[in-house]
Amino acid sequence: MSKDLNLVGLRYNTAAAVFFILYSLAEVPSNIALKLFLPSRWIPAIMMVWGLVMTLMCLVNTYQGLITARIFLGLAEAGLFPGVTYYISLWYPRAERSMRIAIFFSAATVAGAFGGVLAIGGLHGWQWIFCLEGITTMIVAFTAFFFMYDYPETASFLTEAERRYVMDLLREDSNNLATHYDFKFILQAFKDYKTYVQMGIYIGLLIPIYAIALFTPTIINKLGFSAARAQLLSVPPFVAGCLFTILVGIYSDKHKLRGPYVIGGAFVSLVGYTVLYTQSSPGVSYAGTIIAAAGVFPTIAVHLAWAGSNAGGDLKRGVVIAMVIGLGNLGGICSSFIYLDPPRFHIGHGTIMGWLTLSILLSCFAMWDYRRINEEKEELCLEGGITEDHSDKFRDMGDGSPLFRYTI
User: What is the CATH number of domain 10-157+186-400?
Assistant: First the structure.
């Protein structure tokens, strides 16, 4: 693609970066739209649009055309990740979300592996990537129009007893907090400092994710492997990321813990990037690439389950998820411009090590803060005799309700 479209200098980096501008800004409006409209219509519709844009990108023949297509691709694709994460939270209680989000996110890691395989498909392999992935997306989107259900209360595949069970389970898990639309719930999300702590954690995790997605073949190539072998060797890091994403998601739900798994995964990834930063041997450095991917990929699903679980009320949760993912995706702009000093890429690896460290520190603070607030609420409930029978009084308070407990 660099040769065909004359991507000299920072043109490839710029093309990678412009995607994230509208992609980030459109995520909060998209999740509000998902709440106002039906998920079974909103998500397949935006999938169909970006699948069409992606398919037509195979016809791009200029740098300017690529920039334009990437901007519109970002706008169309903005609603998927926060939308599906929010959608999962409408079906499953807090303790069961990490594994579901992990299964969903693992598809992204598999897609990264397939991209490496498709890229060796011939003279214009980049065009095949756009065409085949775009058409596949459109097929899945069309199918989803017929097989995607909106909410448990309207799902026709559930029996009446099953529907009642699921709705009671979700109501109990959410402390009977409000589920309707009201602008004040949007303001609750924007005014809550804990939202911004979670945003900081997420951006520190997502910058390494995007760096892996954008530059893994380049990094491997600069270790001394041929371009074709580098594409194939980019597959194992994504496969490792996929497997550990699902595994960590399962155990995070089993132990009902989020923060320790985020910290652990970020630390493992930090070890991998330390190896990449300090070692020059191709074999050892390649092992560092796999360790980095295996560590950081699982943190995304766990962290989104954490951020969503600690936002009380349906609408506030949707807005918080979109805010966290939206700002985090702006980190993709950073990822696009830090790998500029081959062959060792000290600037890129060092920058990512700094972001991972920030995520670890903020996660430690969040765990301490959530535990502190939970203890204060326990004391308040004991002193005031507040029980679940009083939940209707606090329906509009979101996670500020004295009955709401934060997940650690």
Answer: 1.20.1250.20
